[in-house]
Amino acid sequence: MSDLEIVDSSFSAIINAPIEKVDIPTWCFTLPEDEYRRCSPAHIAAGFTTAPDGKRMSINVETIGGSLMVQHYVETLAEKHHLILESVSDIFTPTGRTTIHVLWELSVRRIDDRTCEFTNHVRSRATEEFKASLDRQGIPFDVFRAQRQPMSIAHNRGETPLFAASIERAALRN
């Protein structure tokens, strides 16, 4: 764990569709808002646009541990069965607005002709801005991390099977 790492969380779920029909980037960058909201009670809104450099961007709004987050996920790797997104996410806390860095990796691997395994891997770390915000409040980073990890891990654990079901629905429509 790095000095600024908040959480490193990975969960998997089964997709009952052939891997050939799964296209994670297409799913991610065309995900309707109501479908995103069905993937977690903490999900508020979703949309997609492009970053200034032209790369695709998924915008997600959710609450984790009582803090509103606006994530600006820019694709850094987009293959049919592997998507890596990176965001400097806005986080709104009771003491103000700051940012955290989030790396979101979605992948799928073949199990057999009819099923595959989806993995939802989320890593977050404090930005210097976030660390300074904690310092101003006198909150040791280790204390914050210890309190935040269970909430972030629970969120990922809960959304992973629902993301898998959503990807499965998209794959079977194609």
What features would you describe in this structure?
This protein is α+β, with helices and mostly antiparallel strands and 174 residues long. It has a single domain (5-173), classed as Alpha-D-Glucose-1,6-Bisphosphate, Chain A, domain 4, CATH 3.30.530.20. The chain is built from four helices and seven strands; from the N terminus they run βααββββββαα. The chain has helices at residues 24-30, 33-38, 128-137, 141-173; strands at 5-15, 43-50, 56-64, 67-79, 82-93, 96-110, 116-126. The model has no long low-confidence stretch (mean pLDDT 95).
Describe the secondary-structure layout.
Blueprint: E1 5-15, H1 24-30, H2 33-38, E2 43-50, E3 56-64, E4 67-79, E5 82-93, E6 96-110, E7 116-126, H3 128-137, H4 141-173
Antiparallel strand pairs: 1-7, 2-3, 3-4, 4-5, 5-6, 6-7
Summary keywords:
single chain, 174 residues, alpha+beta, Alpha-D-Glucose-1,6-Bisphosphate, Chain A, domain 4, seven-stranded antiparallel sheet, 4 helices, 7 strands
Looking at this structure, what is the CATH superfamily? START domain
* CATH fold-level assignment: Alpha-D-Glucose-1,6-Bisphosphate, Chain A, domain 4
Distance N terminus to C terminus? 40 Å
Low-confidence stretches: none
CATH uppermost class: Alpha Beta
Radius of gyration (CA) equals 16 Å
Summed up, the helix count is: 4
- Apparent shape: globular
Give helix % range: 25-40%
Percentage of residues in DSSP E strands = over 45%
Structural class: alpha+beta
What is the H/E order?
Answer: EHHEEEEEEHH
Q: Total number of β-strand segments?
A: 7
CATH level-two architecture: 2-Layer Sandwich
Q: What profile does the largest beta sheet have?
A: 7 strands, antiparallel
Organism: Rhizobium jaguaris
Protein name: SRPBCC family protein
